[in-house]
Amino acid sequence: MRLQQQANGDVARIVVKDLRASFESEYAELKEKFFPVASFDADTFCPRSVWPSGGERLPISVVQANFIHGGLILTWCILHMAGDGTIFYTWTNIWAEECRRAQGLEILDPIQLPEAIWQDQEQVTKPSGHNAGKLEDHPEYSIHTFTPQGAPPKMTSLNHRGQVFYFSPESLAALKAEASPANATETTDQKWISTNDALAALLWRTVMAVQSPLETLEGDPVSFFNIAIDGRQRTDPELHPTTLGCFLEYVSVSTSIRKMLSTMNLADLATEIRKVILRADGRFTDDVVALVEQLEDVDRLIPTAFLDVPGFNCVLTSWVKNCTGWSGDHCWATISRLYESPMLVASTAVKLCFQFCRMVA
């Protein structure tokens, strides 16, 4: 992939659709139902499809404003290779400030971007030479013997659907207690797990139970579970927390699906998840860079779980720590819902549902 700078006149403009005559649901009605994903047709509300075709020129960012009765549904398609959740929130803060400036509104607390977010990129553009970058140390990645012409067929299928589930603080606390290492059936030295570990274990086991019930299994298939982590936190010295670029990296845990659904419990899975996350230390990102540097063709590197997803494998990403900067002048309005596109597998598009407010298109 090569990035090409665009002149101002060539930059993609916000697509504006007035759906008040064709979209029957009203904003208040959708809000009352917690904005069900099934209410939104991706072809109508999104400016493009999730997956590109071979040789296609891709914009980094494409936005579509959909006006419905009583409100606005704003969709944003993002090229993930240009950034991750952290960077997209930085972009959005800047965008929000420029919306205020365009309306002549006072900006009491202008955004200040530190030089470090550019300078710290240099630390990861080349391997340090201190780490070997061996594939056997990174089960989260696989290398094709050929150069694939696109994403795996299962991932590009249009049959995927999304759904939003809500976990209350009380239910998360109960889940974490159930998934505690103290309840593991297998011997472990691990004493602690995070709430995210517990939730990851629940999601992994649930997806496998639904897609591959015990009675349907042939043989003893293994499930690979890739979990997204922030590579900025896995460097030495540590990078600025908002360093520009896509630092989406993975760790991977695997187990027999038959064993997962029969003898293992949530505590066993959560403990294994915590172990692989802890192994991603300050050398991790540099070791991945060293691995990539040795490749004949970077297009042959693929997250292992992507080889069969949806299928026996599973992938988890999280934006849990990326909302901390949305406050004060940097907010556009009250956000009613934020979620991924219903056809989404990788996080390349998000839907932002805002209360109807003054905006410039």
Specify the CATH homologous superfamily of the largest domain: Chloramphenicol acetyltransferase-like domain
Which band does the percent of strand residues land in? 15-25%
Judged by helices, strands and strand pairing, the structural class is alpha+beta
Q: What's the number of domains? A: 2
CATH architecture of the largest domain: 2-Layer Sandwich
Q: How large is the radius of gyration?
A: 22 Å
Beta strands, count? 10
CATH topology of the largest domain: Chloramphenicol Acetyltransferase
What's the main sheet like? 5 strands, mixed
**CATH level 1 class label of the largest domain:** Alpha Beta
Keywords: Acyltransferase, Transferase
InterPro entries: CAT-like_dom_sf, Sec_Metabolite_Acyltrans
Organism: Penicillium flavigenum
Region (Disordered): 125-154
